[in-house]
Amino acid sequence: MTFFEPFSTQMSHLDDCYRKLTVPVKKLPANFSLALTKTIICPNPRAYIALTGSEVIRFLQGQVTCDMSELIHQSVVKGAHCSPSGGVIFTFTAHSLKNGVIVLEINPSIVNIAIESLQKYSKFFKLDIYDVSDKFSNFLIAGPEIKSVLNTLFVLVPTKKGDRFENDIGWLSCIEEGQYALTCSRDLDFSRLYSLTGLTYVDENFANLLTLRTGLAEVTAATSGRFIPQMLNLDSQGYISFKKGCYTGQEVIARTHYRGSVKRRMKALHCSLQSLPEPGSKISSSCNKLLGQVTGAAWIGRNEVEMLAVIPIKQEEFDNLKIADETLFDTYGIPIKY
After folding, report:
1. End-to-end C-alpha distance for the chain, whole angstroms
2. I need a surface site. Which of 61, 166, 216, 286 has the fewest CB within 10 A?
């Protein structure tokens, strides 16, 4: 199956693309503050599911929270696939490629769960579902000189959040102002990236942090099914259409929306920790009362962490919170910009 045309040169996998580039990769914590003042590029591990066939849109329309018919007018739609009880099984970005293939971009940890869940509902539709993660590499590029850098690769650089442009290199998506995701074939000659001037190469923790700072916590294998979309603030990020027809989990999601009954939502926190918490880690009070769960975390400096966590909406005091046996110090809330 061909996804980009043309792609001819031999190349590397995402895991070793930096080694093949032989560029110095800066890592946290020492270089974080410095890197933010530069235009950076970092690997962004992703997984991809391709859906092909005459009934793909009709099938997905009955399974996901977003309006898949919007792909007729635009090339990117964000959504979630949920259980009948409304729990988010996985979140995704749907891409409509020039060759008609629909590709769902998801967190790598959840690809098998996602395919199994979709296949459970796809038996009566004319479509095929494939894991095509080995065909793509993804990078985040961000910084003050980003547009001049990207203009050397793309004639057009999207400027509106959510817009995407595709050429023979791959597709370029605007995450937000000053931040882009570049998805390209693993058959690409990565020396084209190495030839770009003005880029600082950093490790994937930067990708985790940049994503967290947009207010997005992807569902992982550890958090699949644990939260309804509103708990993850997906209703504030364009992941849910309340105008489309029925889909799996809609009754619970719509009832929560119209009655405003959600008691826990995702908040951003800064704290001091010795170890980085994994998604799904439980947050408790000083008296061991369970308060919530971590949905994503990233280092921002030595023993400094920013995280997203689903906790009670009324929770405003963050002193002496604990994750496992470790107490969070210097903890405070961070505004999320939606």
Report:
1. 37
2. 286
Identify the helix (H) or strand (E) that includes residue 212: helix 205-213
Query: Mean pLDDT throughout 236-254?
Result: 95
Instruction: For residues 38 and 17, give the distance between their C-alpha atoms in angstroms, rounded to a whole number.
Output: 21
Q: Is residue 217 helix, strand or coil?
A: coil
Q: How many CB atoms lie within 10 A of CB 24?
A: 9
Instruction: Using alpha carbons, select from 224, 322, 326, 337 the residue that is nearest to residue 279.
Output: 224
Average pLDDT for residues 225-239, to the nearest whole number? 97
Residue 19: band (very low, low, confident or very high) from pLDDT cuts 50, 70, 90? very low
Q: Tell me whether residue 93 is exposed, middle or buried, using C-beta atoms within 10 angstroms of its C-beta: 0 to 12, 13 to 18, 19 or more.
A: buried
Strands (E) in 179-289, as ranges, are 179-185, 199-201, 264-272, 282-284
Angle at 139 between CA 136 and CA 143, to 5 degrees: 160
Predicted confidence (pLDDT) per residue in 90-119, tens digit: 999 999 887 889 999 999 999 999 999 999
Instruction: Judge contact between 312 and 291, C-beta under 8 A.
Output: yes
Residue with tokens 């971590």: 294
In single-letter form, the type of residue at position 261 comes to S
> CA 16 to CA 12: how far, in whole Å?
7
The pTM of the whole model exceeds 0.85? yes
pLDDT in tens, 25-72: 445 444 566 666 788 888 899 999 999 999 999 999 999 999 999 987
Which amino acid is residue 322, in one-letter code?
K
d(CA 51, CA 154): 27
- Cα(80)–Cα(142) distance, rounded to whole angstroms? 26
The span from the CA of 294 to the CA of 292, in Å, is 7
Backbone angles phi, psi at 230, to 5 degrees: -65, -30
Report which residue type is found at 30.
A
Domains of the chain: 1-262 (3.30.1360.120), 263-338 (2.40.30.110)
